[in-house]
Design goal:
CATH architecture of the largest domain: Sandwich
Shape: rod-shaped
Radius of gyration: 27 Å
Bound molecules: copper (II) ion
CATH class of the largest domain: Mainly Beta
CATH superfamily of the largest domain: Cupredoxins -  blue copper proteins
Distance between the termini: 90 Å
Number of strands: 10
Number of helices: 4
Length: 177
């Protein structure tokens, strides 16, 4: 018996046409679930361009360092360009040997962000940094271990000893009355 098993690997899942094979809700939910279930493992996020609205959707994303964002042109002449010039993509990205010129073809481009901070981006034909067809990706700082309280256990021990001494002094005074 052959059973169809859905491959949970986001890299393999991107093969073929993810826009047709994955409903919008799943494309959002799967990375979210992956993020919750496999803490610390990189996730893939999806951003649609164009289609019925000349905008990025979702317009604002918050991801973890090492996560990937896949932009999918759903219709119209678009590209995606970082405000700081760190990427310019459409049929692939300029820096990776692709062509970031705006195109009305169906195209998919994936970037991976590792440095914490916020990266703004826009579509050259329809926007500029912070206006028109634009968006941003906030990359969270990696979680840091909570620092131990200053002085370690000593303040707690001193406080405890003081309370015991006070209690003993009180008891002695009560007994002497
Ligand atoms: Cu556009």
């Amino acid at each position: 018996m052959i059973r169809a098993v859905r491959n949970p690997d986001p890299v393999l899942r991107r093969r073929g046409n993810p826009h047709q094979s994955l409903p919008r809700a799943l494309r959002v939910t799967i990375p979210l679930l992956a993020l919750v279930a496999v803490d610390g493992q990189a996730a893939t996020w999806y951003v649609d361009l164009g289609g019925a609205d000349v905008q990025f959707s979702p317009q604002f994303l918050t991801i973890r360092p090492g996560d990937s964002v896949t932009f999918i042109n759903t219709g119209g002449n678009h590209n995606v360009v970082a405000d700081d010039g760190s990427f310019r993509c459409a049929h692939g990205c300029d820096a990776d040997g692709g062509n970031g010129n705006a195109s009305s073809d169906f195209w998919i481009a994936t970037i991976t962000l590792t440095i914490p901070g916020t990266v703004g981006y826009f579509c050259e034909p329809h926007g500029s940094p912070g206006s028109g067809m634009y968006g941003s990706i906030a990359v969270l700082a990696p979680p840091t271990p909570r620092p131990a309280p200053a002085g370690g256990m000593l303040p707690d021990l001193l406080l405890g000893a003081s309370l015991v001494a006070l209690a003993l002094a009180y008891l002695r005074r009560v007994r002497l009355r």
